[in-house]
Amino acid sequence: MKREILMNTTARETRVAILEDDVLVELMVDRPDAARMVGDIYKGRVEAVLPGIQAAFVDVGTEKAAFLHVSDVALDEDDDDEEPGSAAPVDEDEAANGAGGQGGGGGGRRSRAFPPIQDIVKKGQDLLVQVSKEPIGTKGPRVTAHISLPGRFLVYMPGSDHVGVSRKIEDREERARLRALAREALPPKAGGVIVRTVGEELNKEVFERELKALIALWKQIQKKASKARAPAAVHREAKLVAGIIR
Q1: How far apart are CA 27 and CA 209, in angstroms?
Q2: Which of 27, 131, 162, 223 keeps 20 to 30 A from 13, CA to CA?
Q3: Torsion, Cα of 165, 168, 174, 176 (10° steps)
Q4: Every domain of the chain and the residues it spans
Q5: Is the pLDDT of residue 102 over 50?
Q6: Does the structure show a pLDDT above 80 at 180?
Q7: 34 contacts: CB under 8 Å, gap ≥ 6
């Protein structure tokens, strides 16, 4: 598959288009006067739990409280091999970002039963969350408790034990090989991982190097969060261009 990145920069904005086999698959716009939040991680505090819509509002220090749906906090170990939301949106197709609206379930997920949100989070509770959707209009950002740290070839998910491969890698033998290598590269009880599209045909040594760096980053985030008083930012995602290059 031929993959191209086209970029246009002006004084007011940077536009990045991603083409696969000459077909536009993603278009992103970054404006210097509008700070990007997607991918940022915060130590937040639960402001309110709303059983009626199975959601909670979390104070992350922004003007409007962040929205947390039950699907973004309950454990969900289905065999979904999309790459979760990140600054360079965790399939590369925004699996974790793609909620259509703040009242709905997790983006693109099949309908399933979750435990009641009031049994999972409590008002006043501190919670580590990651922004999956930018604030818009009168709405605050959407967040998820399913943290994901994207690297060049892998997406590391410290709170999951799922090992997956991007759906864009279609060859069954290659998918099986990559899944096996990713499992071997993961230290015991270290979390989960998804092999990104650009990880195709790579070896275990490459995965091990990247996982070592991502796990070290996660430990730094945990250390910072343990010392921070909510609400506080504990990790800023790479800006648009840096994230795309990665």
Answers
A1: 30
A2: 131
A3: 30
A4: 1-34, 35-105+117-245
A5: no
A6: yes
A7: none
